[in-house]
Amino acid sequence: MAVRGVHAKKALAGECANHSCKEGYKCVSERDGRRCELAYCIKRPSVANAELYEPFGLSRDLGRGMIYKCEHGFKLKGKPFAVCRNTGIWKSLITCEKPCEKGWIQNRGHNYCIGPDKKTWNDSKADCISKGSYLVKIDHAAENDWLEKVMIDNNINHMWIGAHDIGHEGSWRWVYDNTTVNYTNWPNNYEHAEGHENCAEMWDKASYRWNDKVCTSVIQYVCHRLTKMLLHVGNSLDTSRMNVCGQFIGPAVNGQVIVIRCKTLPEGQIVKLTSFHTAPEFFHLAEVEVYAV
């Protein structure tokens, strides 16, 4: 006897006929019943400053990679894909950045500006702040080596950095976040002058190693600024397992209110804000608010 209409559909569907799975899953019939199986990624991937570049539209199947391209005025960093991982969570491999504006140079996701003239350490600090930046904080040898190359390429003999021991003789700190100077590049067996040389420079005569100098000396300087903050959401604090739901692309200036809009902010998930720098950095947030719109 033939089975027709709705009854035919139910017969073909078997155990899944009257069963529904939550979004992202499909019902699978088995001999002893049914189960829900992960089948696709939900919603759309969050790819800031980029647009889908697929002729047949978005596919949310597990393991599929979707091609994206950066919007006008943004530069591609990474690979131009967003991938639906086998965990059912989108992973964006593409980052679209604004190129450095005139006068700024970029290295490993950091933006730097060599001061246009020579200034005292305090005036250099003030000029960097006016640019929405700070006198450079050097966290590792690779950054120091790169700054050495910048000095050589630009024929700079002396250059202020953000380390000082003003008001706490012998205890060197970074002016940016008032943290202790951990990575250093003083010459071997270096003896610091006491009392009057309280600001640090890089000096060509010391093979571009650090030197303490009178802060009222007038020399070149280098500013460094926050270029990006990323807003992650997920079920853990491990950003490699979280999705980037929004981002801020700098520069940021002192006192600025930064708004990062998330297209998707699932209820109950963890929100984590990070800087884009490759080395640990600190930026000061007066207040953070997360709310649905």
UniProtKB/TrEMBL annotation:
SUPFAM superfamilies: C-type lectin-like, Complement control module/SCR domain. Keywords: Disulfide bond, Signal, Sushi. Residues 39-98 form the Sushi domain. Disulfide bonds join C41-C84. Residues 107-224 form the C-type lectin domain. Coiled coil: none annotated. It holds the Pfam family Lectin_C. This is C-type lectin domain-containing protein. It comes from Mytilus galloprovincialis (Mediterranean mussel).
